[in-house]
Structure formats: C-alpha cells, structure tokens
Known about the structure:
There is one protein chain. The chain has 23 helices and seven strands. It is mainly alpha-helical. The chain has a five-stranded mixed β-sheet with strand order 4-3-5-7-6. The longest helix is centred in the middle third of the chain and has 36 residues, at about 245-280. The protein is globular and about 75 Å long. About 45% of the residues are buried.
Amino acid sequence: xxxxxxEFQKKNTLLILLGIAVLGLLLRLAFINRTxxxxxEAFYGMFAFKIAHTLLSNILAVIPALLAIAVFSYFAxxxxxxxxxxxxxxxxxxxxxxxxxxxxxxxxxxxxxxQSFGIALxxxxxxxxxxxxxxFSTLGIAVCAFFICRKVFDERTGIIAFxxxxxxxxxxxxxxxxxxxxxGMFLGALSLAxxxxxxxQKKLLPLAGxxxxxxxxxRETVFAFIPAFAxxxxxxxxxxxxxxxxxxxxxxxxxxxxxxAYNLPVIVGNSGITQAYIQKYGSQVNDLSEQVHYSSFIxxxxxxxxxxxxxxxxxxxxxxxxxxxxxxxTLGGAFLILKRRNSAQLAILLLFLVFLIxxxxxxxxxxxxxxxxxxxxxxxxxxxxxxxxxxxxxxWIVAALFLAAFAVQSAIVIQQHDFKGFSQAVQKIxxxxxxxxxxxxxxxxxxxxxxxxxxxxxNPFFKKFFPPDPERQKEFELKKSLILTDNKKHSAEEIDFxxxxxxxxxxxxxxxxxxxCEELKSGKDTAFMLFANKRNNCP
Length: 539
C-alpha cells in the first residue's frame, strides 16, 4: 500500500499540489474581514490610503517613476548590465536620503506601497487590501517551500512542507491580518526558492536578489535570510556562480547591497525609537487587550489580555496552533540535519534558530503575528522529519493523526475568529461627539472613516508639488479633533463616549459621570466596553 501511494505521488505531484492549494485558498478566503483590525493595522492602512489618494490625484506624476522603474528593469533583468544597474541603484539611494522618500522614514515601506497600489487599483478598503496581500503571501510561502525543500531535501519533503504551510492553522489565522510579516516572509522565502531554481535556470538569479531586496524593504527581520542566502549560494556555487552567469550574480549582489544600504539606517533608527518606548512604558507586562478580538480562545490560552512576558511564549504559541506533536517533529528534523551536516540543510536550521532566539529574547513586545517569521523554517524542518518517517510502515497512522490535529486546530481558529464589536460600537456614535479610546486614536479614526478626508502629504519634499485640498483637509482636522488622544489626561467633561477595555475609574476618570451602554464580548471574554457620559444617551 505504501509503495502504491508513493508511486501515485510521483506520477501526480502537480495534481496533489493543486488540490491542497485550492483547499488552502478556500480556508483563507473564509477568514477575510471576519474581525476588526488592530491599531497598528489601522495606522498603516491610513497611510497607505493617503499614498493611494496622492497617486490618483496626481496620476501624471507617477509616469516618471514608472519610466525610471522600466529603465532599471531593462538594464537589470533584460540586458543584465551590472554596471548601469549599480549606477541607477546609487541614484535611487541618493534620492531616498535627499528627498526623504517615501512617506514613513522609520520603517521599511514596501508593504505600504503595495497596499496603496492595491487600494488605488481596486477601490477596496485598506484593511481588506492588506488582508488580501497577507492571504496570497501565505499561499506564496507554501509554494516557495516546495521548491526550496525539493532542492535542499527531496521532493517528498517539498510536498509535505507545501501541505503543512498551505493548511497551517496559524497560516490561515495570520492571513486575516494586515501586517507586514507575511509579505516579508514570502519575499524572503521567494529569494531562496529562486536561488534554488537558478541552479537550473541561471536567468532567475537576478530575480532572487530582487526578491530579497524587496523583502528587506518590507520587514526588518528579513535580514535573517541573508546568512541562509549566502550559505546556499556558496553551497551551490558551482551551479550558479560559474563564468557563464557572472553578470547575473553581480546584478543579484548589487540589488542586495542596495537594499541593505537603503534600509539599515531606517532599521537602526527604528530600534532607537523602540528602546525609547520600552524605557518610557516598561516591559514587565504585555497587554493583549487590543488583540483579544482575534480569538478569545487564543487570548486565554496564552495568558489572558495582560500577561507576564516569557521566553517560551512562541513555543507555547506554536504548540497551541499546531499541537505539541509538531514540536517533536521539529526537534527530530533538527537532529537529523545536525547529524548529516549538509550545509544547505544547516542553512534552513540556522534560519529557524535565528528567528526563534531573536523573538524569544525580546520580552518587551510579544505579539502573535511574530510567529509568522518562525513558521516557514519550522514547518520545513518538520516536513523533513515526516518525510524520513515515511520510510517506515506505520507512517500513515502518524500522518493521519497529525493531519487530523491540523484540521481540528484550523476549525477551532475559524470558529473563534469572528468579532467586530469595536467597529460596530464606534459607528453607532452620533456625529460631532467626542470619543476617547483607551487603546489609542487610530482605530476610532479608521472606523469613523475620518482618514479618507486627509489629503496632506507627509513627505516634506512632496508637499511642494502635491498641496492638500483645503476644504477636505479642514474637515479632516475638525473631525479628528473629536478623537481625544491618549497623550494627556482627560476629564469626564471632555468625553462624550468612551470605548475601553478598562472601567473609567481605572483610567483616572470619575466613574459616576459615565453609564455603561454595552459590553463587547469576544467569546466569553469582554474585549471592550462602551460608556456614555451621563449627558448623552446610549447609541
């Protein structure tokens, strides 16, 4: 029976992959727009909308940028002229720092730019556009895993890795978010996949460099891919670094070096901002009150809305999403890699360890979406262990139990992942009333749609060419003034409505001045409460 199954797998690999891909896509689409977003997602979404508005309002100004990209692409990927490519990249680098391009100068920006183009082209809301990017990124990671594992391990490992990532409960979960993590990991994995395929098709090597460059411009943690990329390139040097593909290798190197020079100052500066934040607010407790809407089951399982940071947080989270059995396979796969001492396989293990150690060491901010970085190499190593186990006669029993556990976890996540209480509460509040939220101003501003009026370009250089619409900007500033910031202490008299995970007295307000209108529950937990000042009626 086992031999017949393997024979079927060899003859029908494409059919098997297609069937798994369709199931993975359907599971992810079931997640689209099922919950409210977090403050970070709202913040990035509003910036992406502003970029999209600027593009649509000044469509002629986009043409020079498109021409520059076309000229660069011709010399880099068609002619493969590394000298002209290097000169053009140096020009882009000078433009970056001379004009402070683009909008956000303290985080890699490619996710924002891609999201803004999606908004401009489709007219979808920022959160939906961001979720679609995450959805297709998680699908892309699974596809890349197949090509990487097929080259580094074998085809059977590639198929298993593809299946694990395509049907991963966490992959399905994170696809319903508008964070940068999934896109960054997809681009990092794509660079390794293209590098693996360039051993057969040399022309793919510059595209591998481009994928890694875009990944570095998406998420700072993609820097962890550089050692793995270098080790694999050295391992396969006879196949991809021959005299015949010298130009391709130089273009690839130029792109990666450009991305490092372009993004490293931003990341170092961002690190300073993060440290200042930690010093100001401390790192003793991780407050998950804003993220409870993802799933009350998940929030409760990882320690509630306020929990003490732990070095084992991501291992516990992995056990929650994938069942502890996966961690056993990961350890088994790591042991086999260390035993065989294959440099390409060691590169994948190194990638996993770098991510796991890095995120486990950072106690100041521990968020569920950071597991996206750990997932790809962890499931690839687990797939290797499963592929090795497939040589034994009891493999199908273990595989069936394992896939059943995956299916159960996915069903639990889908069932729990359905809460839009915050947005519904905000949209009930009458126009012209002041709103205070204990979790910041971004979410109320987003769900009241105020950001759509903001036409002022943030970049100081672009301000000279793209002036704001005075009437819309005035309306934006007027409506935004009704969203009270959490940078200063407010009195009860200033607040018409309060949306908070805490009662008014715990926020330093006079509880007698407020009435509880509604408790917004996620499962059994109260995620938020809507309060009205006694001079206002509940909406």
